[in-house]
Design a protein that fits this description.
- The chain is built from 19 helices and no strands.
- By secondary structure, the protein is an all-alpha fold.
- The chain has one domain: Growth Hormone, Chain: A (Up-down Bundle).
- Helix 3 runs parallel beside helix 5 and helix 3 packs parallel to helix 6.
- The chain is globular and about 60 Å long.
- The two termini are about 30 Å apart.
- The C terminus is likely disordered.
- Pfam families: MFS_1.
- Keywords: Membrane, Nitrate assimilation, Transmembrane, Transmembrane helix.
- This is MFS transporter.
- Belongs to the major facilitator superfamily. Nitrate/nitrite porter (TC 2.A.1.8) family.
């Protein structure tokens, strides 16, 4: 059976450390398999982006049509991210991820058969649902790891997964070039290349269903059937969503994520074409330059989570919010330099610097997510994740309305700098901070003694 469940272990706790080279525990299996699945999803999500110069030539696309395609690529993700978090609370991340991978592969294959602009736009829109994989990824590690390492775990799996976008920027043009070198026509080459991410998604669906479980104790569906107390289970998806939406911190962090992750995926969609159109680079060289931005996710997002966990040891939750503010401000300033870059060399340097701040800010944002409302974790993660895509859509419309891409980047820099104030506005009550400090101290003590802490469920 696809969803054959592991036995319930009511006493298995959250992990207080990340044993990077271990696959022996359910926590580390979830850690590794979730970033692999996320990598495949991001690769598939952005597989078409570096090929847009070829697709533009084949379909004769206008500037507005390209902008519509880029907006469509992230628009539907907003809706799916809103619902996927509560679905994780209700059915567990294992089932949610498996079905997302299976269903998400369909429009990836469909893109290869598109013959008109309208068909291509439809499949590009549908592919955006894959972006909801991020919410499941963050949910899964949030319920598997204790407060002392949850920020690092969330940021690391998110960063390694996000690197799939960078890999797509660099590898997809090479796949097409290899096919053309074998004598395949250019129009057929990019279509055949889309089967690579589609097949990878199907394979990953099997791996996720077979080798992961929802929590350290077992699967949520089985635990609920066994009568175990699962927070949020009685409310159902809508109740969890309403509880998350009633928390003002959720909305402030959604704006912050829109200004960090939203910018990230906007850049992923346009940067290869930007280098081709602005600096007249070849498709392969533009893909390589664009891949630098996505490749930063391999370590930069994790660095943001690690920094958040470290500063929390000294400054608690207030330290996490101050770090996020600083990173977003640096991102905004870096965007201004990128927009003003006059040569390809200065553009790549500026892109690398602002990309570092952007990825770190993404990690620092989701290092805060587990502490907003533990009883509505799925709803909080989904709403904040949706905020990221709203930011990307807004950036897409800004780009469509701007006279030049450079103008768009400069305005975006000022907007991000302004949105950094949302991080400073996130506040926690003394009781909230005291409760979280107690959980953190417990995790640190049990890590020191070689034990683990807590349950795998939101507390």
């Amino acid at each position: 059976m696809l969803f054959a469940s592991p036995a319930i272990n009511a006493i298995e706790p959250k992990a207080t450390r990340i044993d990077l080279f271990s696959f022996s525990t359910p926590q580390m299996r979830a850690f590794h398999i979730t970033w692999m699945a996320f990598f495949v999803c991001f690769f598939a999500w952005f597989a078409a982006a570096p090929l847009m110069p070829l697709i533009k030539a084949e379909f004769g696309l206008s500037k507005d049509q390209i902008a519509n395609i880029n907006i469509a690529a992230v628009a539907v993700t907003i809706l799916v991210r809103l619902v996927i978090g509560p679905l994780c609370d209700r059915f567990g991340p294992r089932r949610a991820y498996t079905w997302l991978l299976l269903l998400g592969a369909l429009p990836v294959f469909g893109l290869a058969f598109a013959q008109t602009y309208e068909a291509f736009l439809f499949f590009r829109l549908a592919i955006g649902a894959i972006g909801a994989s991020f919410v499941i990824t963050q949910y899964h590690t949030s319920v598997m790891f204790a407060p002392n390492v949850v920020g690092t775990a969330n940021a690391t799996v998110g960063g390694w997964g996000n690197a799939g976008g960078g890999a797509a920027q660099s590898l997809m043009p090479l796949v097409v070039a290899a096919m053309i070198g074998l004598g395949v026509e250019q129009a057929f080459g990019w279509r055949a290349a889309m089967f690579v991410p589609g097949v990878a998604m199907l394979a990953m669906a099997f791996v996720y269903a077979r080798y992961t479980q929802d929590t350290p104790q077992g699967d949520i569906v089985d635990m609920r059937a066994a009568g175990m107390d699962i927070h949020g289970g009685k409310k159902g998806g809508w109740g969890i969503f309403k509880q998350a939406a009633a928390n003002y911190r959720t909305w402030l962090l959604a704006i912050a994520y829109g200004a960090s992750f939203g910018v990230e995926i906007f850049i992923q969609n346009i940067v290869a074409s930007y280098y081709v159109d602005t600096f007249e680079l070849s498709l392969a060289n533009a893909g390589f330059a664009a891949g630098i931005f996505g490749g930063l996710a391999l370590f930069a997002r994790a660095l943001g989570g690690i920094a958040s966990d470290r500063i929390a040891l000294l400054k608690g939750l207030d330290g996490r919010t101050l770090l996020l503010f600083t990173l977003m401000l640096g991102e905004g300033i870096g965007l201004l330099f990128f927009g003003h870059a006059a040569t390809v060399t200065t553009a790549i340097i500026a892109m690398t610097v602002f990309g570092l701040f952007t990825h770190m800010a993404c990690g620092a944002t989701y290092a805060l997510v587990p502490f907003v409302d533990r009883k509505a974790l799925g709803g909080v993660a989904g709403l904040i994740g949706a905020g990221g895509n709203i930011g990307a859509v807004a950036a897409g419309f800004l780009n469509k309305a701007s006279a030049t891409p450079q103008d768009c980047l400069i305005v975006l820099g000022y907007v991000v700098a302004g949105c950094s104030l949302c991080a400073l506005a996130v506040r926690f009550s003394p009781a909230h901070k005291s409760a979280e400090r107690a959980l953190l101290d417990e995790a640190l003590e049990l890590r020191r003694t070689g034990a683990a802490v807590g349950t795998g469920l939101p507390a």
